[in-house]
Structures are given as C-alpha cells and as structure tokens.
Design a protein that fits this description.
Number of strands: 7
Strand order of the largest sheet: 1-3-2-4-5-6-7
Largest sheet: 7 strands, mixed
Helix content: 40-55%
Shape: globular
Structural class: alpha/beta
Low-confidence stretches: 1-5, 13-35
Mean pLDDT: 81
Strand content: 5-15%
Oligomer: single chain
Number of helices: 11
CATH architecture of the largest domain: 3-Layer(aba) Sandwich
Number of domains: 2
CATH superfamily of the largest domain: Response regulator
CATH topology of the largest domain: Rossmann fold
C-alpha cells in the first residue's frame, strides 16, 4: 500500500510539472524599428478615416517625436518614415501617402531636390517642408520647388498640426514667424532685382555655398551630397562666377559671412 501511495504521489508531481507553462523568454531590447525608417505600423485601431502621412527626416529621434505628435490627432496616421530622398521616393510609390513632410537637411539629395522629384511624379500630393532654417531664402526656394507649406523646427509644435490642415485643404501655409519675412523678401527682390546675390544661385549651388560656409572641405561636401569632388568644384566655380569673386578663398570668406549673418 505504501509503495502504491508513493507511486501515486510521484505521478501527481509529474502531472503538475507537465502543466506548468514554460518560463517566458527574457524581454528583448526595444526594436530599432521604433526609431528606424521604413513602413510604420500605426497604433490606431481604426485607420479608415485617418489620413496617411510620410515623414522624411534624417534624425531618428526627431522623426519619432513628430510621429507621436501627429498620431495624437485622430485625423492623421504616420504610415512610413524615411531618412533619405531615395528611400522617401520608394516609400511614396509603395504607400501612396496623402501628404509628405520633408526636412531640407537630408544627406545626399537635399529636401528641395526631393520636393522637386515628388512634385513631378506625384503632382497632387501636398508637401510640407519642416526645416531648421528660419531664413526666408529657403522658404521661397521650397515653395518654388513645389512645396505647399513651410514650417521651421523653432516654431511651436502645434503649428505643425495647423499646417497639415491648411495644406490638405489646398492652401499654402507659412508659419507666422516666416510669413512676413518671406513677403518682405519677395517684395524687396521685385523692387531691387539682385538685392541678394545668392538669388542667382541654383538650389544645389546654394547648398554647396552653405556647406563651404560651415567649414566643410570639397571631399566632405562630395561625400555628404553623394557627388564627385569634381562636381563640387564645378559648383564652387559657378558660385565664384555668379557672385563675381576672384578665387576659392574669396568664395570661402563670402560663404562664412553669409552663413554667419543668417545664423545657420
């Protein structure tokens, strides 16, 4: 009897062990997808009414914060994030967002170049430029490239949501801090043609000028913009001619003064 009881107890213990669930695996670190670019799975349960938006910015933390802000509004949903112009073009073709938010300071092709490409391929898609530049030159060039709105990163975050509503309704939006400066810039240019010598530069030449003004060498500029050093030197030569400067040293001095005057 004792042996029978002992066998029964052992069987019960084995039975209990077999029903205990396996230990949960150690929690994995936060997936890099939280801050990486690509297609985004929206946390919203009902996306039927939410307007899909693509964010293009090469700063992961900024993208993440902006996505949180926009997703906080039930009317919008971030469908994807891109860190470069080529990635943005691929995602727009794949996801077909209703609006793209583009940063100007991308590595490789600039935000202005991306805006031009998007406008050609997707002429009806609104584009909102969100930039660190509070210089009206960049706002004017963005609008000329095909952007529907321009907001600086120094503006209150709430202005982004206002800008989204405006451009989606078919209106052009400039943040209050930028609007008066842009109007003054346009009026001044019409009254005094050539008032700003850089108006004659192409968007790429202006970008090269800015990078020269920040102390970057030709090879570094070429690497950042995905150009050959020879192409950068050609842009510098065109800048020299258009600004009526004598040599590369004068170009560098002018560029430094231009960047410093604008606090870029």
């Amino acid at each position: 009897m004792k042996s029978t009881a002992r066998a029964g107890r052992q069987a019960n213990r084995k039975s209990r062990k077999s029903t205990v669930p396996a230990a949960a695996p150690a929690s994995e670190p936060i997936a890099p997808d939280s801050f990486s670019s690509g297609v985004v799975d929206s946390p919203k349960s009902d996306l039927s009414q939410a307007i899909p938006i693509l964010i293009v910015d090469d700063h992961p933390l900024f993208r993440h914060g902006l996505a949180q802000l926009i997703n906080s509004d039930d009317g919008y949903s971030i469908c994807g994030e891109a860190s470069s112009a080529p990635e943005a073009m691929a995602l727009v073709r794949k996801l077909r967002p209703k609006l793209a938010i583009v940063d100007l300071g991308l590595k490789g092709p600039s935000g202005i170049e991306l805006t031009k490409s998007l406008r050609v391929e997707f002429p009806k898609m609104p584009i909102l430029v969100l930039s660190m530049h509070d210089e009206p030159t960049y706002a004017v060039r963005s609008l000329r490239a095909g952007a529907n709105g321009y907001v600086t990163k120094q503006d209150a975050l709430g202005s982004v949501l206002i800008a989204l509503r405006e451009v989606l309704d078919g209106r052009v939006y400039l943040s209050p801090s930028m609007a008066s400066e842009v109007i003054s810039n346009v009026v001044l240019t019409k009254r005094e043609p050539g008032a700003d010598p850089t108006d004659g530069l192409t968007d790429r030449e202006l970008e090269v000028l800015e990078r020269i003004g920040k102390g970057e060498e030709v090879k570094a500029i070429a690497k950042t913009l995905h150009l050959s050093p020879k192409t950068v030197e050609t842009h510098r030569s065109h800048i020299k001619e258009k600004l009526r400067l004598d040599n590369a040293r004068q170009v560098a001095r002018y560029a430094v003064q231009w960047v410093s005057a604008r606090g870029i």
